[in-house]
Amino acid sequence: MKYKFFIFIIFLFLAACVSKAPPVVIEPELPPVTPPPPQIEIEPLLAVDWHQLDGWNDDDLIEPFKVFEQSCKAIGQREQWREVCELSKQVSPLTSATAKMFFETFFQPYQVRNEDGSFTGMITGYYGPELPGSRIQTDKYRYPLYGQPEDLLIVDLDEIYPELSNYRLRGRVVGNRVVPYFERGEIDNGKNPLAGHEIFWVEDPVELFFLHIQGSGRIRLPDGELVMVNYANQNGHKYRSIGKLLLDRQAMTRDQMSMQNIRSWVNANPQAGRELLAENPSYVFFRELPSDYETPPGSLGIPLTERRSLAVDPRTIPLGAPVFLATSVPGTDKPLQQLMVAQDTGGAIKGRVRADFFWGMGKEAGSIAGRMKQDGQLWLLLPKNSDEQLQSRIESQPSDTGIN
């Protein structure tokens, strides 16, 4: 009996010393991994023939030719544009036919493409508002336009960080720190941190808000004098669309969205309207222009031309370049196909096939500009390759082309 018990104890001891074999785990068979397709970078410009420009043959090119000549005052010394700007002076007599010959002879059209390869983008409109105002504050004129304040700090980053050459840092110094500049709500909340920098006073804060969005306009003084004011600088805060906020909050449908309806909504909801305006932190500072300006200058420094100047994203379309636009007249199916000139930029004009159509000055221009949000296509016109090619084309032209 003792022997059997001893054997049993030895068996337990040996069993404890022997490790159990791990269980066999059968891994499920995984499907083969498919690598993502390689990303294809779409070049922004596609060379095309002139007949591919929708409506090219129907436009009267005299006025856009003159607008391009005005742009040559700003770009005419740049290598890419020097020769073709000189050649524009030789077009005589100037007719639509000789202007057309000039563009077709010395330029190559390129259709502008989006990053996904599509050709269609959004075309909006802008204008120069006209606001009743005064150089002094009165009971009627209570809302200020500010000039650029002295404490606005502007730092160009390209010398330190070349990859940030398109960016500027704006702020103000508090103690030994640079902090963001005042937002719209801080400026307009009654504490008046910019007191002393007023250049004009107007009667309608909503109209003043839209002047900020447009960037330029006219002030009609009590004696009837018209004074042009133009963008001088900005507070460094990113623009936020109050139209998009109204859409997100279902206060307005996309079909209802227009500058006129936004203005009506703000006026009908005074408290909520003021709070809505303050949600766009961006704030524009203005300068007064000399009396000979009938339209404001664009980013190129050249006065804009009604219905022929275009604001673009200069990362794709160089300022000063002719651009053919194919879209439609706001509120209709009527084609709007004509040659424009890229003379301006804008904070909301970002993207390849994206442009803002300058409709002119005053209420009528504002009425149509505020309704414009159309699909459209763009063709960029760039000078052909070399000076030698340009000159050889001039010499080979028959005498009746008007290019001497």
Automatic annotation (TrEMBL):
Record-linked Pfam families: 3D (PF06725), MltA (PF03562)
Record's catalysed reaction(s): Exolytic cleavage of the (1->4)-beta-glycosidic linkage between N-acetylmuramic acid (MurNAc) and N-acetylglucosamine (GlcNAc) residues in peptidoglycan, from either the reducing or the non-reducing ends of the peptidoglycan chains, with concomitant formation of a 1,6-anhydrobond in the MurNAc residue
GO molecular function, one term: peptidoglycan lytic transglycosylase activity
Leader peptide range in chain numbering: 1-21
UniProt keywords, alphabetically: Cell wall biogenesis/degradation, Lyase, Signal
Lytic transglycosylase MltA domain segment(s): 130-287
SUPFAM superfamilies assigned: Barwin-like endoglucanases
Name listed for the protein in its UniProt record: peptidoglycan lytic exotransglycosylase
Gene Ontology cellular-component terms listed: outer membrane
Organism, as annotated: Malonomonas rubra DSM 5091
Superkingdom as given in the UniProt entry: Bacteria
Enzyme Commission numbers on file: 4.2.2.n1
InterPro entries: 3D_dom, MltA, MltA_B, RlpA-like_sf
Example of a GO biological process term: cell wall organization
